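Sanity check

After download, print the first record. It should look like this:
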Amino acid sequence: IDMGSGFSNLNSTTPDDIVIRNANGTLLDSLTYAPDWGGEETSLERRSIDVMGIFRENWGNSPAKELATPGAENQIAPDKTPPRITQTQAISNDQIRVLFSESVQAEQAISLSNFSLNTASESLQPPKLQSIEIVAQDTLILSFEDILPREPSGTTYELTITNQTDIFGNVAISLSSEFFLIDYAEADSGEVFVTEFMYDPPE
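Expected structure tokens:
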């Protein structure tokens, strides 16, 4: 359906709510658009009508020569790429934050059996995973039963995650990510020195 041009432009700095209802007031579709979804100097096209429009991943820049396809079939390609880990970070002594490249389905994301933590150190035993919290559609917080031990020189951990599915049904069978933990002591008098002032060139 070509909705025509009788609508105001979307806000380019703050989110916008988009709601479509029929003549009887029945809700047909709705979403909250955010400026970071893309669409700079081009239209945004929906990848799949089988996936809710609320997900940023379901939208992408139009590849059409005219930069839009009003009244015609969308030209954007379907998403065939499974999710991947983009960041793993210890945020406390017993918690890890995991950031994925896209939204993941909750059922597999909170299954403890899909997660394992290992280290090459023979003297350390990683604690048992206690719980998983979804703090954003692409972000998890892993909480462990005890603190993550580390050697004085630091310890590298490898987190392995299996069976993660994105909103389009693409499955990442196995993902892994490493992170490094080390304890830093507070600096004492005479251990930290000013050695240089950086030059800030004029613009």
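If your output differs, re-run the checksum step. Summary of this record's structure: The first strand starts at residue 16 and ends at 21.
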